[in-house]
Amino acid sequence: MNAHLKAELLVDCQNDLGEAVQWNSFLQKVFWTDVFGNALWSCNENGDEVSCQKLPGKLCSFAFRSDGGLLAAFSDGIYDFDIQSGQRRLLAQYQPELGRRTRMNDGGVDRCGRFLAGGIDEEGMHPITEVWSISGCEIRTVISSVGCANSITFSPDGDTMYFADSRCADIFAFDYDQDSGMPSNKRLFASLRDGEGKPDGSCVDREGALWNAQFGGGAVQRFLENGERSTRVELDVPNVTCCCIGGKNLDVLFITTASSGMRDFELQDKPHSGGLFVCPIGAIGLPASTFGSGQKLPQPVP
Q1: Residue 168 to residue 243: CA distance in whole angstroms
Q2: pTM for the full predicted model
Q3: Beta bridge partners of 150
Q4: Among candidates 282, 245, 250, 276, which has minimal Cα distance to 47?
Q5: What's the rounded mean pLDDT across residues 18-35?
Q6: Once rounded to an integer, what is the mean pLDDT over residues 260-276?
Q7: pLDDT of residue 300
Q8: Is the pLDDT of residue 297 over 70?
Q9: Measured between alpha carbons, how far is 235 from 109 in angstroms, rounded to an integer?
Q10: Which of 183, 186, 188 is nearest to 199 (CA)?
């Protein structure tokens, strides 16, 4: 199946940097963050019941918790975040020795309930950041020397981890030990072509295919388990940041985009940049994994 599909605008939210989109099957809503807009957004699958919750910082990625809260990667660290009250507790500060040069970025939950989140060097994407794994009372580094962590997601059986460093056009696969939570045997999975930008956020469908958002490429590309190309979803905006499969039947692709860094004439030409897009697809997704299946939160920073 090498279909070309067209995504349509669902919410004209005009995000600076829409990211980390996830479908919550319990609430039957899609959630996403505007990183630079300091806001957590949500709506139902039809684009109704839109909510924009202002935040006390830049929320870069997050994991739903089994108790209803969020394990949240804000720019400066990992927090326990209560959506209802807006209160948050710092659990670990991210690379304080580097000041404000780096921040947290993309994240994903493995099939055992661990939250993995990486960072970005905002002064040139130099390989100085890390990918953390948060599990129980432990936070540890599982990948080092990263310029811009993206595409963190896992195969349906949990034995493969996908990852991209957006300094380059490559997406990698790792063997993933679910007992230890450690990736190994890094290998090339797929590469973006000229004109397709850089790999950003990803999700995996029930067949094990990877859907990857192309920042600067104006599309989401589906790659089969063997790395071959399949369905391509095109958008009428250039900077595509993240995607997830949701809806009541888990057969709709939700896609975040960004307007940050675009010049006035570019925004005039692509006025829906920063919007949330949607596209029915010929594939079925997986329910979002939650943090907390047997996992305890680390102790907050005093």
Answers
A1: 19
A2: 0.95
A3: 164
A4: 276
A5: 97
A6: 97
A7: 60
A8: no
A9: 27
A10: 188
